[in-house]
Amino acid sequence: EGVILKNANLRGAVILRANFRGADLSGSNLTWAHLFGTDLREANMEGTILDGAFLNEADLRGAKSLTAEQLLRAYTLFKAKLDPGLLEKIREEKPVLLKDPNFRDDPPYYF
Asked: Fewest CB within 10 A of the end CB: N or C in the chain?
């Protein structure tokens, strides 16, 4: 909780059910990271790169400076907990992110 990972390169990291509540992840690279069930509530996500990130069951409620544009570049948000405004934007623009990735018929995209 409250860990500082500002500008960290966590590309491809596997981080399962970690407590990153209130963490500073600003400017961090989480490309292709697996953050299954990770608590990211109130984390600073300003400029965090989420390209291809697996955010299954992650709790992103109240994350600071988190944008829909960042989330739209993730691979999955299946069962993720999001603030209502962000959730609505994802539903409108890319609802496939909210589906079980094991049953999607589209292959992962690359950046």
From this structure: C
pTM assigned to the model: 0.91
Q: Which amino acid is at 24?
A: D
DSSP helix, strand, coil percent of the chain (3-state; round to 5):
20, 15, 70
DSSP-derived 3-state class of residue 44: strand
As a whole number of Å, the end-to-end CA separation of the chain is 30
CB 54 within 8 A of CB 73: no
pLDDT digits (tens, 9 = 90+) for 19-31: 999 999 999 999 9
**Residue 14: how many other CB atoms lie within 10 Å:** 11
Q: How far apart are CA 60 and CA 22, in angstroms?
A: 10
